[in-house]
Automatic annotation (TrEMBL):
Swiss-Prot/TrEMBL catalytic activity: O-acetyl-L-serine + hydrogen sulfide = L-cysteine + acetate
Database matches in InterPro entries: Cys_synth, Cys_Synth/Cystath_Beta-Synth, CysM, P-phosphate_BS, TrpB-like_PALP, TrpB-like_PALP_sf
NCBIfam families: cysKM, cysM, PRK11761.1
Tryptophan synthase beta chain-like PALP domain mapped to chain residues: 5-281
Protein name: Cysteine synthase
Presence of keyword Coiled coil: no
Listed EC numbers: 2.5.1.47
Key words, A-Z: Amino-acid biosynthesis, Cysteine biosynthesis, Pyridoxal phosphate, Transferase
Lineage: Bacteria, Pseudomonadati, Bacteroidota, Flavobacteriia, Flavobacteriales
Cofactor(s) this protein requires: pyridoxal 5'-phosphate
Pathway: Amino-acid biosynthesis; L-cysteine biosynthesis; L-cysteine from L-serine: step 2/2
Family: Belongs to the cysteine synthase/cystathionine beta-synthase family.
Enzyme kind, highest EC tier: transferase
Length: 294
């Protein structure tokens, strides 16, 4: 008998049918919305909790807390409850109601902080509770179990499912766990594989993709593991998210649209190759936002 946790990972890799116009390049989407919690964040959430429990760092008496923009929080709420752990999740108050309701449905306490300070304000709130009120933070931004989840699962799956032929990996950068862990694995297999990170332009707000101020830069981030960074505007990400649904049948969030926009920009510069782009989550947790409005 398997548990819901056994369904984390081994997500499908599907080839673009309409969007890729370069006949010498294959573009594949890795569908992370097929994880049970609906996003790529199931992987690090599971690894962070499982590893901390196995080390004896946390138990059912621990007061866990984590700042999140959404997907990590949903994954942590799901997994913490299955491990009988108490967790408080901290988010900016302008987060979509689907996110808040999903976390609460899984049994987590959700605290909303001022939207003016964004995720940085949520991080400060959580860190203050850790420093002064006896809480324990998983701290996805500095936790090696975050990127190691992708080293153990995402990278090997891409290597396997492309028959060891992947040439380029494209990923949005938030906590940077996905790109750090996948890069580490793929570069060990073939140092010529190009790792492409996606960031928003300076005037853009794209949920799930960040250009962090220096003092908030994730400690797990190593710029040497990223060969190229492609910037994407909010308008580009929005338009590409809608195109993903209409042209490829892939219903996803805006960070996935941003990664797709970057992947298509990349493909225009290539003579040949096999490109894998991460589709981080599903679009249904954005329906209360204006993302899919015409």
């Amino acid at each position: 008998m398997s548990s819901i946790l056994d369904l984390i990972g081994n997500t499908p890799l599907v080839e673009a049918q309409q969007m890729n116009k370069n006949k010498n390049v294959k573009l594949f989407f890795k569908l992370e919305g097929n994880n049970p919690g609906g996003s790529v964040k199931d992987r690090p959430a599971y690894n962070m909790i499982k590893s901390a429990v196995e080390r004896g760092d946390i138990d059912k008496n621990t007061k866990l807390i984590e700042a999140t923009s959404g997907n990590t929080g949903i994954a942590l709420a799901l997994i913490a409850n299955l491990y009988n752990l108490n967790i408080e999740l901290v988010m900016p108050e302008n987060s979509t109601k689907e996110r808040v309701q999903t976390m609460r449905a899984y049994g987590a306490k959700v605290t909303l902080t001022s939207s003016d300070r964004g995720i940085e304000g949520a991080r400060d709130y959580a860190e203050n509770k850790v420093a002064n009120e006896g809480f324990v933070g998983l701290n996805q931004f500095a936790n090696d179990d975050n990127w190691k989840a992708h080293y153990k699962t995402t990278g090997p799956e891409i290597w396997r499912d492309t028959n060891q032929k992947v040439t380029h990996f494209v990923s949005s950068m938030g906590t940077t766990g996905t790109i750090m862990g996948t890069s580490t694995f793929l570069k060990e297999k073939n140092s010529a594989i190009q790792i492409v990170g996606v960031q928003p332009t300076d005037d853009s707000r794209i949920p799930g993709i960040r250009k962090w101020p220096q003092e908030y830069l994730p400690k797990i981030f190593n710029p040497k593991k990223v060969d190229q960074v492609i910037e994407v505007s909010e308008d580009e990400a929005r338009a590409m998210t809608k195109r993903l649904a209409k042209e490829e049948g892939i219903f996803a969030g805006m960070s996935s649209g941003g990664a797709t926009a970057a992947a298509l920009k990349l493909i225009e510069t290539l003579d040949e190759g096999i490109v894998v782009s991460i589709v981080c989550d599903r679009g249904d947790r954005y329906l209360s936002s204006d993302l899919f409005e015409e």
